[in-house]
Write a structure and sequence with these properties.
The complex is a heterodimer.
Chain A: H1 7-15, H2 28-33, H3 38-61, H4 71-93, H5 95-101, H6 112-122, H7 127-157, E1 159-160, E2 163-164, H8 179-225
Antiparallel strand pairs in A: 1-2
Chain B: H1 2-13, H2 16-20, H3 24-29, H4 34-63, H5 72-94, H6 96-102, H7 105-108, H8 113-124, H9 129-157, H10 169-184
Helix pairs in contact in B: 1-9, 4-5, 4-8, 4-9, 5-6, 5-8, 9-10
The chains are: A mainly alpha, B mainly alpha.
Chain lengths: 226, 192
């Protein structure tokens, strides 16, 4: 069964149909907390993807050596090591960004998304597939965080990535950059994507029904011919 | 007085769930029934208080004297993971019903960001030992408060006619947003 999933699919499934934030509801704390601006969202997603990618590579390559009883503890240790690397690098290279993300960079350690992927995927698959899977999940995370941060930044401060995009007369909604705004925006975003997938399902169903009807008609016509 | 301020600031004004977004996973996952939400809150509070004590000791007595601050995250998460294991065994021993009620959510406390976040905030704000404990209790009480209120609302929500697309996580997030708005009312209470 494992082989039947194509490599492309391994990557794309995380981007859209299994999007970690919008569909699986994983990694919510960073998604909600840091997305006051789009740039914060991007930085957070890149840091998370880095940790996810390298811990997946390590864990999938030593997955046969880790005893099952202590696997969670070993995963967390490996993840924590990479988070420390990211944290130190960010402090040295991007001190301002690191300050605005604050304690949420170290909190990547307990991001359910990362541990979840290790448990569900890397511990059962090879290095290459695990890397693809984590890159896909990382991309999905990036898309969700960028959208969330972008929406909040545009409505909350009239800018996107620091450039003004809304007209001068627009009165910014302060609530969007406050905690409550994060909950409301993400809630509405999820509802929107839910409604999209519901519509898609309905369409599939109606097309299926139509196909069945066609088939039935054909059969009955054939029978009449006889 | 200072200690009380720290307590109320952590419990109400800067509520961990509603203004720092820590512990969202259990907040959304376990808030279906008031009783299980409340016991989840209690278990988390218990782990939080012990975490604040133990991580403070480790940070100030081991990591600083030996200049090992970069091992912070690794050592904190190890301590938390073993603490949670301990709490799980403890609850299993003394109360079977509670153990069954909390079920799979107990191990999840390990990956509850609120716990690690608490330890990190205590280091970041350079709290003293006693301040740290008060902060831990406050954070735990705040978490319990938020998750119990949320469970109360969600029990009512079961009877409401929610649009198909909003079912599940979206409506929960919207409710949390309104709750966060309500908690914003406290923000003038303490200037901290």
């Amino acid at each position: 069964m494992k082989k039947s999933v194509s490599l492309v699919k391994e990557y794309t499934k995380g981007v859209w149909e299994n999007n970690p934030v919008l569909i699986q509801v994983l990694g919510m704390c960073p998604a909600l907390a840091v997305t006051v601006s789009a740039i914060n969202g991007i930085a957070m997603a890149l840091a998370t993807t880095f940790v996810l990618l390298f811990s997946s590579i390590i864990i999938s390559s030593i997955r046969k050596l880790i005893p099952a009883q202590v696997r969670i503890a070993s995963y967390i240790l490996i993840i924590a090591t990479f988070v420390t690397i990211v944290d130190l690098v960010m402090k040295a290279q991007f001190p301002e960004l690191s300050k605005s993300l604050g304690p949420y960079i170290p909190l990547i350690v307990v991001n359910c998304l990362i541990l979840g992927r290790q448990e569900a995927f890397s511990s059962k698959n090879g290095i290459f597939r695990s890397a693809l899977d984590s890159l896909g999940m990382g991309t999905g995370f990036l898309i969700a965080l960028f959208m969330l941060g972008g929406i909040r930044e545009i409505i909350g401060t009239k800018t996107l990535l620091g450039y003004q995009v809304m007209p001068e007369a627009f009165e910014p909604w302060l609530i969007m950059i406050l905690p409550a705004g994060a909950f409301l925006t993400l809630g509405l975003m999820m509802a929107y994507f839910n409604s999209l997938s519901i519509k898609k399902k309905e369409k599939e169903q109606t097309s299926l029904v139509a196909k069945y009807q066609n088939l039935k008609n054909n059969i009955s016509i054939n029978e009449e011919d006889k | 007085m200072e200690l009380l301020l720290i307590f109320f600031s952590a419990a109400i004004v800067n509520n961990f769930v509603l203004s720092y977004f820590l512990g969202i996973c259990p907040f959304i996952g376990v808030s279906n029934k008031i009783s299980s939400a409340f016991s989840m809150g209690l278990a988390t509070t218990f782990v939080m208080v012990i975490t604040s004590i133990v991580t403070w000791l480790i940070y100030h007595l081991i990591l600083i004297p030996y200049h090992l601050e970069f091992l912070q995250y690794v050592s904190f998460i190890l301590v938390i993971a073993s603490l949670v294991q301990f709490v799980e065994m403890f609850i299993k021993k003394i109360s079977q019903p509670l153990y069954r009620a909390l079920g799979i959510f107990l191990p999840l406390i390990t990956t509850n960001c609120a716990i690690l976040g608490l330890a990190l905030f205590i280091v970041l704000r350079e709290y003293s030992f006693v301040e740290g404990i008060f902060y831990g209790v406050g954070a735990g009480v705040g978490f319990t408060l938020a998750i119990t209120i949320m469970a109360g609302i969600r029990e009512e929500l079961d009877l409401a006619d929610v649009p198909e697309a909003f079912k599940g996580a979206p409506i929960t997030l919207l409710v949390a947003g309104i709750l966060a708005l309500a908690f914003m009312g406290f923000s003038g209470l303490i200037t901290f």
